[in-house]
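User: Here's a structure from my thesis project, written as structure tokens. My advisor, Dr. K., wants to see whether a designed sequence matches the one we expressed. Can you design one independently, without my sequence as a hint?
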């Protein structure tokens, strides 16, 4: 390998690693901001959070890598242009294509790695992260009783505290309703003060209460069938000190079986996605055939009244008779009025049931098609995100050579604009595919078909040293355009005013 190639690769790899971790950090922060309510107050251990962040980072790699490549290419070739290294290379007879060639080989390797990652590692990372997020969401929050509010987080109990002393951990005006017998508020405990302690294993909640009263409603005995009792006996106990132990259930993190999530479309590789898509298409075909058969029977089946009229005819007699023209109006006029009304009601009911059947079956088939589209979208996404690495390189490298600005200023702005443009087109195409407006190929590859010509155009302009990002070039262009306009539309000269 030439020394120049090693220098170009070394100059590119550093910004690539830096921008990759910056993008990963931003994506993880965005996720944590979105799910902050599900994570805070759950008492999660450090290794659980570390495991979640690791799987999240792995699931964000296919999206973060193209953006990091775009930003790194802009920074690297912008630095070359800003330090006039690019000018020196071109003056030595090295065209831009050869300068980009070693990085292009690296892009081929990264594209292959991105495809392998998306097909083999990403499904596992999605499975692990989604299952862990589900477990965290289902976990009950850590015990946090606020002063002046009823806390119903413990099953069978409702607890209220008047105020807290955070220095002494003393609680005042404690009110505990016990609903464990499922007969309503039959047991109530009130204390002037007390302390609350959670055992180290978080299985029990211990209340040490001082100076209070307990009320317990005694269940009435069997009533006499001819007498009604209006008394409701209860027991009242006064205490100076009392200890109440409440069992805590559901406060620990329980891991769900991951097999419950493994058939999700984002957790499958190409082979599994193809298998599921074929199976779903076969189910859709069977459902459509059954619907057509049922609809044909409802629309073209013989009426039960005409079957009664012809039930004495055999098949041989029917074949022996020559076809006779059928006059619907004459046949209808020969029917009795009661039979006409019955036939009309039966036809109306049949039409309404057929309409309802068509509507319901149409909704079912439409929902089934949308479900298939999600698997097809994920199948195409594994290719489009991988190919985006090369496309963004062909946009970032020539654009950096044109603007000739390095660092994290202008390249960050341009990279974000291009990536947002790519993301909006991709999401719009994906939405059209989910709504069955576009085919999966068109919707998922539309962003690639738009950005690839842009990359080729930028590479061509950069090779010819076109100043497409220069303000002077645009000012000269619009100045010349204004001169041409004034040439075709000359100003009218005003006549001098006559002196009076």
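Assistant: Designed independently from the structure alone:
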């Amino acid at each position: 390998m030439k020394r120049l190639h090693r220098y170009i690769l070394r100059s590119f790899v550093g910004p690539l690693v830096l921008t990759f971790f910056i993008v990963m950090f931003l994506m993880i922060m965005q996720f944590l901001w979105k799910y902050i309510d599900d994570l805070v107050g759950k008492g999660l251990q450090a290794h659980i959070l570390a495991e979640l962040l690791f799987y999240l980072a792995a699931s964000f790699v296919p999206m973060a890598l193209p953006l990091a490549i775009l930003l790194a290419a802009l920074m690297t070739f912008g630095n070359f242009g800003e330090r006039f290294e690019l000018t020196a290379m071109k003056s030595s007879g090295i065209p831009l294509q050869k300068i980009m060639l070693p990085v292009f080989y690296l892009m081929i390797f990264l594209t292959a790695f991105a495809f392998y990652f998306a097909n083999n590692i990403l499904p596992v990372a999605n499975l692990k992260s989604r299952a862990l997020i589900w477990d965290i969401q289902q976990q009950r929050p850590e015990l946090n009783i606020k002063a002046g509010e009823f806390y119903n987080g413990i099953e069978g109990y409702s607890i209220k505290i008047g105020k807290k002393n955070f220095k002494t951990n003393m609680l005042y005006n404690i009110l505990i309703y016990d609903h464990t017998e499922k007969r309503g508020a039959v047991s109530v405990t009130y204390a002037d003060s007390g302390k609350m302690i959670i055992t180290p294993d978080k299985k029990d909640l211990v209340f040490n209460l001082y100076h209070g009263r307990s009320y317990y409603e005694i269940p009435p005995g069997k009533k006499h069938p001819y007498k009604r009792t209006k008394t409701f006996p209860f027991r009242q106990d006064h205490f100076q000190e009392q200890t109440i132990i409440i069992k805590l259930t559901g406060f620990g993190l329980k891991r769900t079986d991951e097999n419950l999530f493994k058939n999700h479309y984002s957790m499958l590789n190409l082979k599994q996605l193809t298998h599921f898509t074929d199976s779903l298409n076969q189910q859709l075909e069977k459902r459509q055939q059954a619907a057509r058969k049922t609809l044909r029977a409802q629309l073209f089946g013989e009426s039960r009244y005409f079957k009664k009229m012809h039930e004495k005819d055999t098949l041989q007699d029917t074949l022996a008779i020559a076809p006779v023209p059928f006059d619907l109006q004459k046949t209808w006029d020969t029917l009795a009025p009661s039979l006409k009304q019955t036939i009309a009601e039966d036809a109306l009911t049949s039409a309404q049931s057929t309409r309802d059947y068509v509507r319901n079956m149409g909704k079912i088939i439409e929902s089934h098609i949308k479900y298939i589209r999600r698997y097809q979208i994920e199948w195409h996404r594994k290719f489009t995100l991988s190919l985006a690495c090369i496309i963004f390189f062909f946009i970032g490298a020539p654009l950096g050579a044109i603007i000739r600005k390095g660092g994290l200023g202008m390249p960050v702005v341009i990279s974000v604009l291009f990536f947002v443009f790519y993301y909006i087109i991709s999401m719009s195409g994906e939405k059209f595919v989910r709504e069955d407006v576009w085919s999966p190929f068109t919707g998922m590859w539309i962003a690639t078909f738009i950005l690839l010509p842009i990359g080729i155009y930028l590479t061509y302009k950069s090779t010819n040293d076109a100043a497409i990002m220069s303000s002077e070039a645009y000012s000269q262009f619009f100045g010349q355009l204004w001169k041409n306009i004034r040439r075709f539309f000359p100003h009218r000269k005003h006549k001098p005013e006559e002196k009076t």
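When you compare it with your expressed construct, this may help: The longest strand covers residues 204-217.
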